[in-house]
Amino acid sequence: MEKVRISLTQAQMLIITSITASGHLLFIPAILNHTGRDSWLCLLLVVPPALLIAYTVSSLARMYPGQTVIEYLPLIVGKLPGKLFAVLFLFYFFHHALLSVRGFGEFFTIAITPDTPILVYFAAILSLAVYAVRNNLEVLARTNQLFLPIMILVGLSASILTHKDKDFHNFQPILEFGFEPVLQGTLTLAGLYGSFLLMSMVFPYVSRDAKSFKKSSLITMIILIVMFAGPLTGPVAVYGPERSIGISFPTFQLLRDIRVGELQRLDVLGILLWSLGSFGKISLYLYSISLGLSQLFGLKDYRSLVIPVAALIAINSLMISENFLEIYRFLRDTYPYYSNFMGLLLPLVVLLIAKWRERSKRKDGGDGDVQETAQTQTG
Amino acid sequence: MYKKLRKHKRVEHRERQSEKESPPQDATDSADATALLPDLQENIKQFSERFGEKSDLVVRRMNTGDDRRAVVLYLECLTDETLINDFVIQPLQKQFEHWSVERHDLPPIREIHLSTNQLNVVKSFEECNEHLIKGDCLVLFADSREALAASTPGGERRAVAEATNELVVRGPREAFNEVLQTNLGLIRRRVRTPNLQVEKIMIGNLSRTPAAILYIHNLAGDKLVNEVKSRLAKIEIDGVLDSQYLEEMIEDRNGYTPFPTIFNTERPDRISAGLLEGRVAILVEGTPVGLLVPATLPMFLYANEDYYQRYDIATFLRLLRTGTFFLSILLPGFYIAVLSYHQEMIPTPLLIAFTGQREGVPFDIAVEVAFMEMTFEILREAGIRLPKTIGTAVSIVGGLVLGQAAVEAGFVASGTVIAVSATAIASFCTPAYEMAIAARLLRFLIISLCAVLGAFGFFFGIILVVAHLNTLRSFGENYLSPIVPFKRSGWRDLLVRVSWRRLRGHAEENIQPGENA
């Protein structure tokens, strides 16, 4: 297999796409549902946990350069527990993929073409993802590198064009219902940022030295937080707290209500954002799951797994829930705890074990490479 | 299963190759069969057998006093007969007279002087045949196992003329012709550095077509040059009649793609510009089309005039051209998607007008557009190979009569005619013909996707095409470079062309093949 190398910027862009794509579509309503008009406070409160996630993932990648999380887990926690952890992480990725594929399909069947069966959209987006992933990560990274600036441009212009409709008095009074709803919303947002863990499948292929990962990850996280400022505050400012909660896709509704001269109802912009974004996100997940599975079972090439995994995703995203409301309720009630456990807590534990092992090894007098010591430990 | 089949084919191919190689091997085994014979008559007989009794091989016998004789052989269609007369036959006669008076013998072959450009001593029939085919004339002597080959090139060739396909308002007008020598001269005259390397090779088992690899020594990367050489060396083909043969045989194995990954042009200035950017050019005898590698997508959207005009105007035109390129692929699909799935986007008065037009049209919009596009493709194909005088008739019948009548008959809506003809005109803006063809194919892909999936189909198509473009490579260079992977230096000459003052350093940084990500 040829050597795959992507640049650090491309890796950053991949993760930005994969978190914002369905984040802006599916998670905004869940967060708004918790917080109402205080949604902007979440952005401030989420900074520490988000940075912690970025720090954890990048430190691990730095300690084990050239290896994915599936590969270095057994080195840290031992062979069998490592495999167990790997299965957990892969399940987490898989679940995320299901959510985003289902969310993508629901978006189209609810908002755009109600008569089309949802499976059509699953098949379409997954076949694109299969095409990109079966080529290699480079193709995916470059395609996304071309699309992300376009998406950001559309997003920025959307927030500028809606500015005249925004009434910032809608944010008053602050903390009408106390701190608890805001904390709930922050937890949801932090859970979303937990999927930053996906970067640990991409880092090994970044051509840059592993030392720069930490700084760039923190920067990426800050960019991600800034990118949620518009979508989180926009619906509240335009529609008011009560109405914005009732809309199933508030950000899409915002785009729809843009009016520039004779041009109106720019659904196409929304379709652009969420088809290009979902393509990046779903491909990245498909890639990570296939690669992770192949590493878990010691296969040489992940390509043979891509189509089966895609098929599994398509079927399971149908079975994951009865309807969109169920997903929505899951995202609101269960997801924050589940995702924070998987995306923040587990990696943090793994990092602590790794650090502790490194330190104990140093105390023993071995000043050698971390990776080497870890390998000797597992045999 | 498929792999097995391919392997089988490959084995077959190899067998066929070895068969092809075997006859010459047999011939070389018996060295006497190929070496010239001491008997002159026998030699002549051999040649006339080889080329046929009544062929264009001219055998001019010369008496040289006594019984000893010499013979001049040449192919009349490939040589210049005045050259042969003035510089081969006359000098020979003079020298023979001189010799036969003094020594009553023929001079040793190496002491005969002919005033042609090149003079070689040849010993075997193989060599002789090669020289004859090249347009040299052979002088055979009695009682000698050696012969002389003097270069006397001739034959009809086209003069260097104005470019017919790649026109410019301002800039050099010369185009290549079919003669490799002339073409090399056109380039040498533009790039006057001894660093310009010209390597001649021979391609084609039967056609034995000369070709040349050109590059500037310090600018083109060694890796690239070696890659080009090795790919050309691997070619196994009977005949090469146009550079397209080579193009298909040396292009990267990207799997199926409608996009050209090797640039071709008929303009020496374009090739020279490529050389100055560090690219490698390939010229082939017998065709006015030269090749340039590596080629990236933006190259196909540049016109050479971009560099001969003021940079601000050039930039405007380049942006226009890029825009029309996308239009030529996307417009009909977008029209279908919006009109059949997203009518709410259209301003109401316009929507009413559109709906009014389509009142009497029984077909779906997608069917309408596909029908008009096909009609247009047929018209275009019909127009290309017709004589120019009839060509205008086709455009009148097609454009005016068919278009208008179709609308009036309620066959298509006039909106569709506008969309299709706007697309057609946009597609004429693409400077590279190969890229315009690729766009034509992709247009149908987008049309069918939009007809099925609406706006999502539109973006589906875009994602598919962009992802596909990202899989492409041309001699190690990414096809979309420098857009992705992003290279800042490349952007000075991408969508905008900056002034030559700031573009100067461009060449050296431009091509670093093999550099990924």
UniProtKB/TrEMBL annotation, chain A:
Domain of life: Bacteria
Main location: membrane
Membrane-traversing stretches: 12-32, 38-60, 72-95, 107-133, 145-162, 182-206, 218-240, 271-293, 305-325, 337-354
Record Pfam families: Spore_permease
InterPro entries named among the record's database cross-references: Spore_GerAB
Membrane-protein topology: Multi-pass membrane protein
Gene3D superfamilies: Amino acid/polyamine transporter I
Subcellular location: Membrane
Key words, A-Z: Germination, Membrane, Transmembrane, Transmembrane helix, Transport
Annotated family: Belongs to the amino acid-polyamine-organocation (APC) superfamily. Spore germination protein (SGP) (TC 2.A.3.9) family.
NCBIfam families: 2A0309
Name of the protein: Endospore germination permease
Organism: Tumebacillus lacus
Taxonomic path: Bacteria, Bacillati, Bacillota, Bacilli, Bacillales
TrEMBL record, chain B:
Pfam families: GerA
Transmembrane segments: 280-303, 323-341, 389-407, 413-433, 445-469
Chain positions covered by the region annotation Disordered: 1-31
InterPro entries per record: Spore_Ger, UPF0353/GerABKA_families
Compositionally skewed regions (Basic and acidic residues) per UniProt: 12-23
Biased segments, Basic residues type: 1-11
UniProt keywords, alphabetically: Membrane, Transmembrane, Transmembrane helix
Annotated family: Belongs to the GerABKA family.
Record's protein name: Spore germination protein
Organism: Tumebacillus lacus
Higher taxonomy: Bacteria, Bacillati, Bacillota, Bacilli, Bacillales
